[in-house]
Every structure is written in C-alpha cells, then in structure tokens.
Amino acid sequence: xxxxRPYTITLPEEVPSDFRNHDLDGDGVISTADMTVALxxxxxxxxxxxxxxxxxxxxAALLHNEDAQLMTHTHWDGLLKRWAERTxxxxxxxxxETRRSPLSRLGTWLRMYRLEIVWFALHFLLQxxxxxxxxxxxMAKIRAKGREFAPLNMVGISLAMNLQASCxxxxxxxxxxxxxxxxxxxxxxxxxxxxxxxxxxxVLGWTVGVCAVAHSTCFLVQYYEVSIQPNATYTFLxxxxxxxxxxxxxxxxxxxxxxxxxxxxxxxxxMWYDVFYWTHKLQFVFWVTLILHAKDDFxxxxxxxxxxxxxxxxxxxxxxxxxxxxxxxVEVNLLPNKMSQLVxxxxxxxxxKPGDYIFLKAPHLGWTSWHxxxxxxxxxxxxxxxxxxxxxxxxxxxxxxxxxxxxxxxDDISLCIEDDDDEAQLNDTRxxxxxxxxxxxxxxIGNLNTVALLDGPYSASxxxxxxxxxxxxxxxGIGVAPFVSVLGSVVRRRLASQAGQTHGKGRGPLGxxxxxxxxxxxxxxxxxxxxxDLLHDAQQQHHELADDCPFIxxxxxxxxxxxxxxxxxxxxxxxxxHHELHGVDxxxxxxxxxxxxRPKWPAVFRDLSAQSRHGSVxxxxxxxxxxxxELRWFSAQHRFHFSWENF
Length: 647
Hints:
Blueprint: H1 17-22, H2 32-46, H3 52-65, H4 73-93, H5 102-112, H6 114-145, H7 151-170, H8 177-183, H9 197-227, H10 236-240, H11 243-261, H12 265-268, H13 273-279, H14 283-294, H15 298-324, E1 328-335, E2 339-345, E3 357-361, E4 371-374, E5 384-390, H16 394-405, H17 420-428, E6 434-435, E7 441-445, E8 450-451, E9 453-458, E10 470-476, H18 481-498, E11 515-522, H19 532-545, E12 552-559, H20 569-582, E13 595-596, H21 601-610, E14 617-622, H22 625-637, E15 641-644
Helix pairs in contact: 2-3, 3-20, 5-22, 6-7, 7-9, 7-15, 9-11, 11-14, 18-19
C-alpha cells in the first residue's frame, strides 16, 4: 500500500486526542505505519504478544473498513461513531439483571445446594442418633454398676460415639475413588453429591475436630474434679498421663492438630502441597492410636470402611504394576505459558470416558507421591494418552525444568501406533525447537522411554456428557483439559459415524446430545495455541457436516488480558472487522470471534435459557472455585443442571 504524501494536513482544534495519539508522525492522517506502530505499542503495554502478522492483519482490516489507504480525522470520527452505535445496540440487548426478592434468592440458594442440604441434614440426624446411643450406653452402665450420675462423663462418652462414627464410617469415603466412579454410571448418581465429596470430607473433619475438643474438655474437667476430692486416689497429672486414655488421647490431639493445620487452604493450595500430602499420612498413626484409645468400640465401626480402603489401594497398585510394564512417556512437548504436554503409551485394556482423570507417578522425578491430572486425549485414540500439565506447583515446575534441561539424555523407543489417525495426531503434537514471538522457547522432546505409573482412570462429572441434551462446557485456563477430551471424542465419533460405525443399540454417535456450547476463559490469547489444532478441526468438521446433522456447536473464547476499556476501542474494532472480513479471528485463527474481557454471565445464561428448545441444559465447569459459585448460582436461577470437575 502506497502511503507516501508530500504534504501535511493541519488539524482543527476540536479533533479528539485519541486521533492525535494514533497519528504518530503528526501529519494529520493515520497511515498504515502509524496504525501498525500504535497497535504494537498497545500490544507491549498489555503484554498481548501479538505477532507482526497479527498486527498487520488488524491494521489492514481497520483501513479496509474505511476503504482508504490513509485515515483522516473525518474517517476516524465516522469509524468511532459506527462503533459506538454498535456498542450501544449490544448494551441495550444485554439487559441488567433484575433484583430479586429475598424469597426468590432463598429459593435459588436451595436449588443450588439441594443435594448437599439433604445429605448434611442426614449427617446431622445421624450425629444426633449416635449421641443418643452414647447416652443410652452410659445410663445402662451406671445402672449396672451402681455408679453416681456424672453429666460430664455422659457427654464425653456420647461425643466419643460421634467421633467413632465420623472417623470410622465417613472420613474414608473421599478416598473411595473407584467406588464413586462406578456410582457415576448408575441411577444413584442423581441422588448423591459426588461432586462435593471433598466438601463433605472437610465438614466431617470439622465435625471430628469440634467433637474431639468437647470430648477432651469434658474428661479433663471430670478428671480435675475427681482429683481434688478428699478421698481421691490419683492426682490430676496421674489421670491424664495414664496410657489407655491419657497418653493415647494426647497423641490423638497432637496428630489431629497437625493434620488439620497443614490442610488449611493457604498450605494445601500453594507450593506447600507436599507438606499437606505427607502430614495427611499421619492418619494411619491416628487410626492405630484411636483403636488403642477407644478399646473395644472403635474397631467395630472401623473394620468395614478400612477393608474397602485396602481393597481400593490394592487395586491401585495391582493396576500400576500391571500397566507399569508398558506405560512409557514417549514424548514431551513444552508449550507456551508454562504448559507441558506428556504423550504416554496407552496400555491395553485401559478404558476411560471423556474427562476422566488419573494419578501419575513419574519415578524419574521421585517415587514418593502421586499427582492427579485430567486425561486430555479422546478415548477413541487407541494407542496414546495426553496429559496437559501447567507448571504451577513444586512438582509440576520440577517436571517442566527437568525436560527443559534434559532434552538430549533419553534412550530411543520404537512406538507402534496401530491407528493411522492416532499417528497423525501424535505427529501434530511435535514441534521443532524454535523461539516464538515472545522469545519463549517451545520444543518437542521425542523418542523417550520413560517409565510412568498410572492409577485410574477415575470418572468425573463429564461421565454423563453424552446423556445430556444441551451441554454447556465452561472452563478457565488449564481447566479446559477435560473438555478437550470431550471435544476430541465428539470429533472422532462424528468421523466414525460418517464411516458407518455405530455407537450402541439405538444410539447415535453423540448419544442424546443435540447442542454443545463451549466457553473458554484465558488470560492470554497465546494459551489458545495449546489446543488450536483440535479446536480448528472441530470447527471445520462441524462446518462441513452442518447440513448432514442437526447437531449445533458454538465456541465462545474470552481473553481477559484485553479488558473492555475505551482506550482499547481501536483494537476491539480491528478484531471485529477482521472477523467480519475474513471469517476467522485475528488472535486465534479460529472461526469463533475472540471476545475481550470477562463474560457477562447474566446475559450468557439468558441466552442459554432461550435455547432450551434443544433440551434440558447441563452446565459442566472446570476451573477456580470462585467462579464455580457464580456459575452454580446462575444455573440454579435458570434451573439448569450443574456439575463441577473437582477431585
């Protein structure tokens, strides 16, 4: 484009400052070079990491819209005016959320937590029942032995029943991952708060803590009162130092305080996760000591839950050993924004559903701990598994550094890929080592033969995905991993259907699914490149098969590092115009237009509700807990089903 000109235009005083800010050489017009430099500066300011090609494409779209090689202030005013009108129309459609009455809000809250409320109520009634059993046992004991009634003794013994019930029967159930995975495949899943198992574990932990404090206080006060009687045969210190109840009690108190403190969020959810993991192993000290402390009572309620626990752990190590002979990390791809992709040889007989997760142990990084990750590959990929791991904690950062520094130290392996399409997908994940536009090294390390132990797979909320009529997948950051597996399965099922393959008696390739809305919220647009090929293939396939299948699929991608501010109007206009001209997004290369800022959830859920003709709506979410509460609230408002990927 020829932008040379032998003159300078004198601008009137009323020309807005934003035009002058883009007219960098001050000649009265905005040229291609002016706009390019302005967008590059904006990219640096916002840390957008726009490539030169992306900046050029956005610049060309802005100038093409005005059908001019040079943009005068008249063109500029017209452009801003049309953008303001378009924004105003959009804002008028996005009606503000109406304020609801307290009764209506209460109803929404009850729908949000209906299962949790029912089960917490049952838990409370069960605790009352065990307390009542303790009272009855105490009264029968003093009548049989002719002892004097002691209220503190009665309360302490009754609280001991609560402690035994909570510890023996209930505290183990979050560890029953295999059992809960099987339950997700039954009709009982509708009546069990399986997504809230960790919450129940925490509540039961607090129950144990409160009962333990009250139980200890009752007996300490009782011991003191007895020790100061004139005819006392033991001192207070002798009473609390007696082994069966005293010393074992103090060990239980110390163990419980240690486990509870190191389970607090500021430790568990940070780089100190390993401390949380290892202090939780003190539970075995707690169980043994509690058996000694409670004498003949606790083991009776402990034996069955512990037997199930042992069976679960036994199955875990048997599978890990059986699959450990063939499971190998065969390739590692270091992706932008601290993301690593592990490509693992899939063992024969390893069956899973979209969105399932596993526990991974990498002996070359340490034999001591297992780490949970979602399987991001589709179940239809026969020979390989994908794990996408963000370097955020101690172990994951160690994993990233290990492969960054060890790319030339591995033995070769001959990986047999039986499915040609799987081999193509494996090849698609390979990159030559290069520097991207942000100078961050991205490299592929292939021909590995690294032992990896797997525990799983375990089912998550997406197990019911193909039994849903209208599925809404909402993810934030790396929370997209389970939904990548889901999208990959959708793509492969539709391809298989085109090839004449069936998916069960009386079922189409997508089960009951009629519509899919996929939301992905990322901080930086470069994060979309983690799964750009899969997202592009899914959109391309859907476009090609749109006439042959009534299935509807929409993508909604939000980049939060580009906030919706007046200073960024030019960039937002350029992105919009580029999408209208070329049908693809300038930032991601996808057919879906990238939206700037965070989603306006009230408007989003109103739109989803208006599409309810496609069947009942089920919202699946994977991401931070703060957003989970907001999404759960809006789902309850619109009477949608809601599931949170939480393990």
